[in-house]
């Protein structure tokens, strides 16, 4: 910048307002003229006035020092006073520092002197004390009391000041926040004043900003006093950054009031207060996480350093160097200095703005070292923290009229995709539910892409359910349910269950009323959920135990091979895949598209028996109903609803009964609700059954009973005489007394005893037999009409009650025996070979002493259900490590017919010892699967064992032992009769010569490993599990198929109850509570109530080769078989197990079978088909083996069937003679493996 003009003498070397010719004001060219006029009276001479005037209006003059106005009594010579402002700060700082140091020195000297004098006085006191005889102490000196009082007063003031500034109280927090806010306000005033010259004359009474700044600094002074009083170390306090800021900002304000001039000076140091910004936010509970605190700290330090350095450059560049008489200054705004510091720190240095003064350049040299280091370290860390901040850290906003669920736990791409695929399946009704995922780890790119594809119904938030704040973010209190997913592939199942239990505890603690559905890996860990006070299964809380259901599915396959595949497909949502070619995949996929649904039955079904409604739904509505939700009429059990699977013809449908259907989508099931006999009776196309306009008034009791009776006897209501006039009158009388009551027919039998005592039934024994009973069966007895099928046992059960023998557990659901030591059930290889096992179940188990427990009790319990008679129980032989089985034995020692062969499933000698070629099923399990990181090797043991068995060869000579194998037949059919032997639970060939024909089911962890089980299939490795041949044939099972149960249970909590009823053999919440107490089944004496629990349905397989259904096996319709089995034996058919190559005419067909679920009515049957059916409990199977008269067929000889056909050994007809009870008991004992 050029120097100003010369004075009156024209001396160009004059500086400031001082020239050789006189005194005057040197002004900058950027100052307006109206600020530069001077009072003429203030001139001392005319020459001075002339000189001043000429200097004011000099156009080239650009170096003003101080602008003045007429009203400000400022120095007319324009002399700078910056030194006065700076001196006030320096004197305050160094003066205080000197006083503190002087005080410390004097205190130290005083302490030294007092210490020496104190020792002398102490010695004198000891001497004087020893000379006193009475031992009394001298009174305390009055000066010492005064000092103690003074110290106490000072301490109180110090503590009070410390509380005021500590932010531990509300007053302290308000004070701290107020000081910070006022500091920012003072900084803003500095920003405003920075547009003015560095030093200017201002009137305190007229300058509003100066008044505000003065008020702020008075407050800062008071706060400084509090801090000084509260400080423990005055010296360190004096040298603190905040104290230095006060020294160089507060005193100059008072000086400016006194001098009526302002100097920007070091007021920019107020920017250093920004360093405390994170502390203020923490006091206000705004910052709570370490990342946010660190981010705000870095930003505040960076910004405060940047602004402070810019203020210093602004000061020295606009003032100039003192040794240059401030002549080398340049006009820079504050924000230009901010820009200069940023390009300097970033080492860009454009050069458009730069420092000209020596002080500025010297500062830039040192600043660029520290600034560059700070920029290079702080900026990347700030960017990283901003980039790593929770992208999914918001809060869920509930949508009015739309429910939402929270899904947490094991959130991965696989688990989420499987869940969404089933939850949002198109076969469900419109799913108006939003899914909120909560997980503490942000999703990867693949999972994030999955969320984006379902962005209309899915949201993800990062957090933990163990944190109440995160639960509040996802609005758990208004959620419809919370679903917790488990890691099925974890190495420690107990630890995973413990984590999920803790999640349940946290959620229930936050909101006890929330419905929770959680996955559990181990059955014994379910007991811990019962310890949670707010856990209530009656309110919808459910625990899906994967081990329990997995082993239950496998156990049911031991009773009916392929059932595990059928059930898994029923409870999973699968889209229909149409195949034109006539292959086995076509029929399999048609069945796969069926799912399980629930719907309330129309009032048109009220009063009809279950088989009647089931037949009507199948024939007319094209629906398969397998169960209903039953509400007992007994007052003590009325509040509890039970699910009855194929309950039989004694139970009548009540108003508002919920039915369980197998159908392809939810729309089809609506037919059962919309059906109206008046409107839809003549409709043949089920798609035309829509909601009609009938009001559907409730029928009277008489009409319901008459309609049910007429439907059963096959007559019209006009011709039927099932109910006499007397009965009709009794009903009418009661109807007037109890109008519009929805009492079913079976309930009326209890209310009106005249029905069975005074009015004999018109049904003939043969008609009754066709309608679902057999001779001497309680289901068809004309004298027994049970109002509750689960409370009154059959007569044969009552006769067999023995108060001294415990045959069943305390609930009556399972066979039970006294605990046995494991040594008593261990077989050696030679003992096993001499036992000649046949028709048994071989369980090959891989595990050792360190393996996680599988929970073999869940495999054994369905095979020991009490709805089997004792002689029907299949012997179970475990082949595996004795160390592992000892750990499992505590839960198995109460089950009969269990043996152990120590060895390895890979040893063919052990497999031959247990006659694996004569077994009804071989189960391959492994407890070591989750201990291997490589997913391809997780199933290596199971795959090797399966291939080892399939490659074995056997001698045909031992095939004759198959005759000892006992199967399951419909009620009344003789298992020992060759005429009826085709009706078996598991039919087998007369002999097996190769291991390929041995029925095997293998458990897999990794779905893709299914390709290694069958070497002759052409399954692609990327094929979904349910589309592979081993799964379709029922020879492979993976726990991943159970993922769909989470969404199925959410939409209908009865589904899980139905599944557990089907696959667990009758496990109930009461039984789980009992096992939670003792970890074992408790034996109980037989009572009518416990024996009544045996009367429940079970799954079996029906053969069509021979027997009562042989006429339908060759070209017959499945619908005819369905109706005949339902009417004749109360058996409910629901699928077919067919040979894979049954549709081909090949000379050597394959022995593999596949599952067909719920085939249509017109589906053509073949003789080799096995039919899945739900069979009633046979009360007489344990006493009488007499066969039905209409089902005894003579079989003189049976042709030799190929290895692909489940043929029956041919024997001559024998006359079946009833045996006495003693002979039957003797025979039973001979058959049982003790």
SSE diagram, text form:
Layout: H1 46-56, H2 82-131, H3 142-165, H4 170-193, E1 199-201, H5 208-230, H6 234-238, H7 241-259, E2 261-263, H8 277-283, H9 290-319, H10 334-345, H11 358-387, E3 403-409, H12 413-423, E4 433-439, H13 445-453, E5 458-462, H14 468-473, E6 481-485, H15 493-510, E7 516-520, H16 526-529, E8 542-545, H17 546-559, H18 563-570, H19 584-592, E9 595-600, H20 610-619, E10 624-631, E11 641-645, E12 658-663, H21 666-674, H22 677-680, H23 701-713, H24 725-737, H25 745-751, H26 754-757, H27 765-770, H28 795-799, E13 808-809, H29 829-835, E14 841-846, H30 857-863, E15 876-880, H31 882-888, E16 898-902, H32 908-913, E17 921-926, H33 940-950, E18 1000-1004, H34 1029-1032, E19 1036-1038, H35 1045-1051, H36 1053-1063, H37 1069-1078, E20 1083-1084, H38 1088-1092, E21 1098-1103, H39 1110-1113, H40 1118-1129, E22 1132-1139, E23 1153-1157, E24 1170-1175, H41 1221-1231
Parallel strand pairs: 3-4, 3-6, 4-5, 6-7, 7-8, 14-15, 14-17, 15-16, 17-18, 18-19
Antiparallel strand pairs: 1-2, 9-12, 10-11, 10-12, 13-20, 21-24, 22-23, 22-24
């Amino acid at each position: 910048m050029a120097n100003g003009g010369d004075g009156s003498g024209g001396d160009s070397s004059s500086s400031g307002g001082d020239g050789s010719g006189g005194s005057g004001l040197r002004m900058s060219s950027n100052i307006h003229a109206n600020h530069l006029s001077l009072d003429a009276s203030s001139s001392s001479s005319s020459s001075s006035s002339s000189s001043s005037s000429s200097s004011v209006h000099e156009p080239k003059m650009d170096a003003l020092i101080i602008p003045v106005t007429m009203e400000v009594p400022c120095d007319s010579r324009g002399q700078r006073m910056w030194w006065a402002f700076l001196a006030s700060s320096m004197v305050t700082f160094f003066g205080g520092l000197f006083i503190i140091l002087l005080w410390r020195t004097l205190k130290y000297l005083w302490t030294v002197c007092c210490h020496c004098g104190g020792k002398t006085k102490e010695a004198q006191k000891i001497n004087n004390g020893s000379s006193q005889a009475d031992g009394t102490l001298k009174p305390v000196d009055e000066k010492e009391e005064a000092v103690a009082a003074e110290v106490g007063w000072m301490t109180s003031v110090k503590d009070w000041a410390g509380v005021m500034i500590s932010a531990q109280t509300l007053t302290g927090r308000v004070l701290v926040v107020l000081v910070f806010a006022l500091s920012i306000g003072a900084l803003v005033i500095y920003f405003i004043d920075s547009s003015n010259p560095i030093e200017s004359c201002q009137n305190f009474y007229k300058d509003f900003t100066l008044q505000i700044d003065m008020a702020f600094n008075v407050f800062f002074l008071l706060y400084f006093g509090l801090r000084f009083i509260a400080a423990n170390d005055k010296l360190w306090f004096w040298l603190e950054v905040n104290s230095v800021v006060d020294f160089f900002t507060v005193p100059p304000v008072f000086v400016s009031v006194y001098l009526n001039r302002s100097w920007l000076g070091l007021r920019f140091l107020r920017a250093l207060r920004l360093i405390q910004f994170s502390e203020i936010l923490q006091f206000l509970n705004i910052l709570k996480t370490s990342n946010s605190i660190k981010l705000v700290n870095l930003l505040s330090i960076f910004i405060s350093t940047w602004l402070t350095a810019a203020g210093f450059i602004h000061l020295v560049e606009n003032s100039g160097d003192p040794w240059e008489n401030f002549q080398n200054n340049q006009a820079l705004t504050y924000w230009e200095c901010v820009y200069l510091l940023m390009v300097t720190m970033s080492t860009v240095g454009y050069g458009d703005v730069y420092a000209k003064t020596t002080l500025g350049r010297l500062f830039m040299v040192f600043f660029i070292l520290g600034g560059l280091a700070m920029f290079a370290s702080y900026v990347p860390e700030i960017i990283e923290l901003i980039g790593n901040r929770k992208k999914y850290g918001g809060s869920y906003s509930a949508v009015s009229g739309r429910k939402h669920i929270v899904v947490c736990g094991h959130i991965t791409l696989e688990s989420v995709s499987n869940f969404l695929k089933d939850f949002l399946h198109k076969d469900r009704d419109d799913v108006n539910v939003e899914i909120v995922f909560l997980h503490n780890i942000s999703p990867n790119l693949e999972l994030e892409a999955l969320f984006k594809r379902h962005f209309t119904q899915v949201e993800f938030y990062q957090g933990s359910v163990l944190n109440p704040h995160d639960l509040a973010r996802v609005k758990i209190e208004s959620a419809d349910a919370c679903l917790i997913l488990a890691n099925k592939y974890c190495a420690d199942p107990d630890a995973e269950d413990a984590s999920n239990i803790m999640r349940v505890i946290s959620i229930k603690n936050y909101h006890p009323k929330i419905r929770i559905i959680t996955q559990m890996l181990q059955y014994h860990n379910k007991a811990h959920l019962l310890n949670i006070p707010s856990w209530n299964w009656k309110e919808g809380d459910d625990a899906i135990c994967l081990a329990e259901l997995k082993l239950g599915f496998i156990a049911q396959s031991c009773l009916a091979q392929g059932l595990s595949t059928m059930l898994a497909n029923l409870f999973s949502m699968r889209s229909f895949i149409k195949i034109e070619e006539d292959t086995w995949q076509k029929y399999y996929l048609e069945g796969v598209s069926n799912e399980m649904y629930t719907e309330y039955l129309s009032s048109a079904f009220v009063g009809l028996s279950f088989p009647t409604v089931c037949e009507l739904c199948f024939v007319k509505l094209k629906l398969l109903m397998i169960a209903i939700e039953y509400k007992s009429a007994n007052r003590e059990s009325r509040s509890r609803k039970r699910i009855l699977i194929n309950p039989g013809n004694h139970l009548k449908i009540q108003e508002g009964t919920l039915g369980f259907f197998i159908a392809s989508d939810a729309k089809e099931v609506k037919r059962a609700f919309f059906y109206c006999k008046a409107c839809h009776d003549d409709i043949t196309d089920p798609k035309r059954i829509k909601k009609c306009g009938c009001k559907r008034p409730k029928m009277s009791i008489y009409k319901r009973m008459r309609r049910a009776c007429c439907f059963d006897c096959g007559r019209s209501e006009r011709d039927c005489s099932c109910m006499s006039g007397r009965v009709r009158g009794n009903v009418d009388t009661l109807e007037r007394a109890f109008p519009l009551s929805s009492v079913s027919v079976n309930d009326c039998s209890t209310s009106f005893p005249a029905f069975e005592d005074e009015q004999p039934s018109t049904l003939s024994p043969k008609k009754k037999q066709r309608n679902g009973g057999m001779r001497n069966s309680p289901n068809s007895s004309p004298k027994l009409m049970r109002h509750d099928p689960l409370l009154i046992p059959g007569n044969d059960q009552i006769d067999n009650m023995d108060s001294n023998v415990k045959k069943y557990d305390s609930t009556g659901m399972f066979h039970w025996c006294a605990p046995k030591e494991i040594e008593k059930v261990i077989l050696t290889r030679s003992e096993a070979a001499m036992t000649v096992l046949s028709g048994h179940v071989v369980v090959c188990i891989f595990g050792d002493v360190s393996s996680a427990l599988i929970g073999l009790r869940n495999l054994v319990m369905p095979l020991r259900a009490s709805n089997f008679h004792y002689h029907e129980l299949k012997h179970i032989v475990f082949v595996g490590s004795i160390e592992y089985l000892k750990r499992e034995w505590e839960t198995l020692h109460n089950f009969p017919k269990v043996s152990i062969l120590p060895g390895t499933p890979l040893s063919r000698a052990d497999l031959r010892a247990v006659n694996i070629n004569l077994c009804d099923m071989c189960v391959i399990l492994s407890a070591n699967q989750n201990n291997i990181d490589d997913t391809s090797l997780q199933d290596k043991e199971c795959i090797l064992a399966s291939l080892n068995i399939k490659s074995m060869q056997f001698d045909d000579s031992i095939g004759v032992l198959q005759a000892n194998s006992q199967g399951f037949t419909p009620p009344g059919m003789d298992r020992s009769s060759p005429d009826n032997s085709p009706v078996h639970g598991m039919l087998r060939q007369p002999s097996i010569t190769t291991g390929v024909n041995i029925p095997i089911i293998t458990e897999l962890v990794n779905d893709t490993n299914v390709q290694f089980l069958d070497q002759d299939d052409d399954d692609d490795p990327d094929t979904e599990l349910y589309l592979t041949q081993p799964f379709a044939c029922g020879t492979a099972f993976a726990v991943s198929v159970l993922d769909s149960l989470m969404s199925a249970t959410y939409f209908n909590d009865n589904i899980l109850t139905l599944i557990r009823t089907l696959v667990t053999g009758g496990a109930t919440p009461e039984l789980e509570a009992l096992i939670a107490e003792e970890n074992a089944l408790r034996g109980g004496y037989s009572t009518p109530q416990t024996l009544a629990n045996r009367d429940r349905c079970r799954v079996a397989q029906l053969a069509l080769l021979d027997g009562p259904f042989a006429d339908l096996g060759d070209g017959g319709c499945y619908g005819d078989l369905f109706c005949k089995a339902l009417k004749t034996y109360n058996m409910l058919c629901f699928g077919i197990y067919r040979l894979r190559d049954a549709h081909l005419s090949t000379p050597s067909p394959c022995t593999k079978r596949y599952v067909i679920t719920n085939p249509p009515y017109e589906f053509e049957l073949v003789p080799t088909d096995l039919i899945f059916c739900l069979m009633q409990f046979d009360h007489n199977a344990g006493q009488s083996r007499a066969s039905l008269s209409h089902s005894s067929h003579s079989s003189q000889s049976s042709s030799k069937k190929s290895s692909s056909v489940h043929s029956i050994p041919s024997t001559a007809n024998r006359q079946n003679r009833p045996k006495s009870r003693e002979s039957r008991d003797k025979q039973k004992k001979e058959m049982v493996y003790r």
